[in-house]
Known about the structure:
The structure holds two protein chains of two kinds. Chain A has helices at 3-11, 15-42, 44-48, 70-75, 110-113, 121-129, 138-143, 187-197, 218-228, 241-250, 253-284, 286-295, 299-335, 348-375, 378-383; strands spanning 53-58, 66-67, 80-88, 92-93, 102-105, 117-118, 133-137, 151-156, 161-173, 183-186, 204-205, 207-212, 236-240.
Amino acid sequence: MKIFKIIFKNAFRHKLRVFLTIVGISIAVMAFGLLRTVVTAWNAGVEASSANRLVVRQAVSFIFPLPYADREQIAKIPGVEVVSPFMWFGGVYLDKKNFFARMACDPETVFDVYPEYLVDQSVKETFKKERNSCIIGEALAKQFNLKLGDVMNIDGDIYPGKWQFTVRGIYKPRDKTVDATQMLFDWKYVDERMKQDSPERAGMIGWYSVRIKDPAQSATISERIDALFKNSRAETKTETERAFQQGFVASSGAIITAMNVMAFVIIGIIMLVLGNTMIMSARERTREYAVLKTLGFQGGHLIAFIAGESLIISLMGGLLGLGILFPFVAAFEAFMPKGFFPVFNIENTTIIIAASSALAVGFAASIFPIQRALKTSIVNGLRHIG
Amino acid sequence: MANAITIESVSKTYQRDKMSVPVLNNVSLEIPEGEFIALMGPSGSGKTTLLNLIAGIDRPTKGRILVGGTDISTLSETSLAKWRSSKVGFIFQFYNLIPVLTAFENVELPLTLTKLTKAERKRQVELALQVVGLSDRMNHYPKQLSGGQEQRVAIARAIASDPSIIVADEPTGDLDKKSADEIMTLLTRLNKEFHKTIVMVTHDPSAADRATLVRHLEKGDLLG
């Protein structure tokens, strides 16, 4: 009979109590994982941002446009490799609930600035040539069952009118952090319509994404770009892509902080649940520990018995929690409006933190019972009733 | 015959809050090998304390205890634990079996501390359970056994590692007369057939009658 067998048998001595403890831990681990996943989804844009990309936007607000003509001046600044314009198009696809990013861009440069959108060269060439073509992310294609050659009808709101785009490419994300729910089409297609319908809005873009050679030069280049347009009718604010993305998230900062705090409060709750179980178990077994010591078992054995039991319970709770986390996250994502979180994945870090927290809690919960078992003398332990 | 146990001027005082409570006063006793000694006396006389000192689960405040030539009062906690596992078998009033382990596993428990192989442990356990007449109950859990059977499992556990000394604290105190007689017969057999030195604390005169030597304690003093 191995010591592990005794530990295992002890762990399941009070089946209902242990079952409830395991369920409690698993729900807490699942809740922790879900909160962390929401927080990481919120921060996905920040995490996916590249160090060698700058974003140039209107200094007053992101919603004000910039002249397309600024592009050439920005491109001349030393250290700038590629300047690519973008414009938030908005509009409605099939239903107002169908939210995803619809962006006008420059087919010539968009994939040079965003190499994480993986498409074939032939697709890129078609995208450059066919003015009303569009390229969509594979998650978006899957969501709306879109195939190459399909036509997407968009009802314009920011840019009024009926807009038709033909799907000529489906990009794959380079990794899980990349948004695969976007729709990209040629800015010129929109601009040509604007020239006809609203000439005062023609020649304007939303922002520039700028690829720079050396990320260490980002501050200097940003200053140079902004200096270039100082006192112009469209002053700019240039920042790193990360800072730009953080600007979006910052408005929800308090909520995210609260969710982060909640996630770690949950770990505290797990500890209390398991700690309570372990303290009860150890108190009930005071006499048994004394008997074991009498038989020659030493402090190390008792530590192994108590910590092992606690770790088994916490591990089982943790594994069960992680097991139910995946369907729960999938259900949560399905419940949320489509496209609300373009990237909604359980990160490996979340799994590692949840699993290691469960184990750490398992060990921490056993400290007090271990201390008590070690401190209680054999004579007092044998006298214990309970 | 050499002494199995020598107790030299042993005193024991417990601290209860700020009060010192003397339990044993300058007790000296020699127990020859193969003896079956019963310690009797009223509650609070110090007989269980003396038994605990002999068994190495408590330490004297003063004096020396030599068991098999080893001064156990000077051993470290680790050495004492190792010594107990190999030299002394314990029998408690309330059996103190581990409820989640079968009779076999309970008897095997002290053997897990030895270097015996699984096959050797199995052989020892089966032999011990055979001696106590519970070969057919080895897969039963304590709750599936009667009080007498539980105590027999406890005795099997006490003899599994073949210690030379067995200490028994009120081994019949929780049993009916028939079961108590069976347990005493078993202890007598262990003493006579297997030459175990047995130190037993009891209130029961009929149990004490089975011992080869009876000593009385009163208010911490060994009488006679």
